[in-house]
Amino acid sequence: MSHLQQPHAKHTGIKDIDECAEGLIECHNHSRCVNLPGWYHCECRSGFHDNGSYLLDGSSCIDIDECGLQTHTCWNDSVCVNLPGGYDCVCTSGPGCSGDCPQEEQIRRNGEDWKPGFDRCALCSCKDGQTYCRRRPCDCGDPDEDLFCCPGCDNRPSSQCLDQSGRTLYRSGASWLYGCQQCRCMEGEVDCWPLVCPALMCEYTTVAEAECCPRCVTDPCLADNLSYDIRQTCQDPAGAVRLSGDTWHMLNSPCTACKCKNGNICCSVDLDCLQNN
To answer: Which stretches make up the EGF-like domain (predicted)?
Structure first.
């Protein structure tokens, strides 16, 4: 907060007198003198603020208690101690008091970055006693970039891959879908694994044609994930009892096939059969 002093008699064309530099003004030690054209003021120093009386000599500047206001940055087990114009963090006890991080039989200093031995592509940091690890960012403009960690930076022709159809060329690190597999080009070699489908919380599911993952359906006749329960039987039109999982053809309709699915009769017509009969 500023404590403004009224301007002295300074006329246009007369050089400004710097009262602060000349030692003409003495501000309280909690404030400092700031010269302005035609006048000066006593400004509270960092760590102090005015108590509301705004005395001209700055004697109304009082200490800010960072510890009491919880505006300090002391970490973990260290204790905040208020000081005139600031604060200090005192380490009393505890392994995290210093903010350092014990790692791999050595101590990493607070604020230190390093590459861990368990992952050449990771970058770890110590911050206030806590260790944070993340994927190291890639810089493809760096000629010494690790291509194992950054395959997308690998432009060598020998590292490219043809897909299974032989029509598309992928650079190292690129991914694509083939059938129901996820594939990736890794330095000239294609690696594929089954596509991971999301978990479904429904009773009946089916996999549609040309799709890889199941979807929910409400009709049990459309479901292909049924576990047949022989205790749930069906009665066909002729009155015969059919066990769950049994199939039969409708009387007088040889192209219509039916199946018992846990108490539900599900029928379908074979179109090829109809054309041939």
So the answer is: 16-54, 63-98
Cα separation, 190 vs 178, in Å, equals 11
CA 173/CA 196 separation, integer angstroms:
19
Mean pLDDT computed over every residue of the chain: 84
The CA distances from residue 256 to 15, 247, 250, 253, 272, in Å, are 110, 11, 6, 6, 11
Helices (H), 70-194: none
Do β-strands 86-91 and 101-103 pair in parallel, antiparallel, or remain unpaired?
Answer: unpaired
In a domain, 107, yes or no: yes
3 exposure class (CB count in 10 Å sphere: 0-12, 13-18, 19+): buried
78 assigned to some structural domain: no
Answer yes or no: is pLDDT of 8 > 80: no
Question: Residues 6 or more apart from 152 whose CB is under 8 A from it?
Answer: 138, 140, 171, 172, 173, 174
Domain that holds residue 110: 101-135
Give CA–CA dist 240/247, Å, rounded.
12
230 or 76: which leads in pLDDT: 230
Residue 160 covered by a domain:
yes
